[in-house]
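User: I'm new to structure prediction. If I give you an amino acid sequence, what do you actually give back? Let's try with this one:
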Amino acid sequence: MSSKEIDEIVSDFSRFYILTILYEGPSHGYSIISKFKKRIGKEISPSLIYPFLKQLEQKGMVRYSLKPVGAKKKKVFELTKKGKELCTQLFKRFSALVSVAIEPTMSICANCGCKVYEGGYSEVIDNKKMAFCCVHCAESYKQERLEKH
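Assistant: Good question. You get back a string of structure tokens that encode the predicted 3D arrangement of the chain. For your 149 residues, that looks like this:
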């Protein structure tokens, strides 16, 4: 995949991520830019952020207030109730998409039942390879088997 193709995908993803940042709490434009770069590792253009914030404001998803930030007053944006509801719907959809991609690669701990994506622990017990989330769950599983027999 070319760098240009990746940039286009990240640009589409950027709007979703801007909403995620706002969902965490009120933020001004420069703060959104900084958080985006820190978390995604890519620069985001103010020419993407501010028109998107304006569009969200026009649709009643975001409101802003002028607040002192340092020596200046800046527009601090926050999601409205309608905006939070939109985010909740988007997060559910995104979660379902991620589940489709990740579920097949997950294992379930034989002791506690938690789902393990990577970094789990496995051990052969009674000639059967068993998956655990950690060595402690494996030990608990073996101890419970001993107590039952």
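You can read the tokens as a compact description of the fold. Here is one thing that stands out. Helices lie at 3-24, 29-40, 46-58, 81-102, 135-148.
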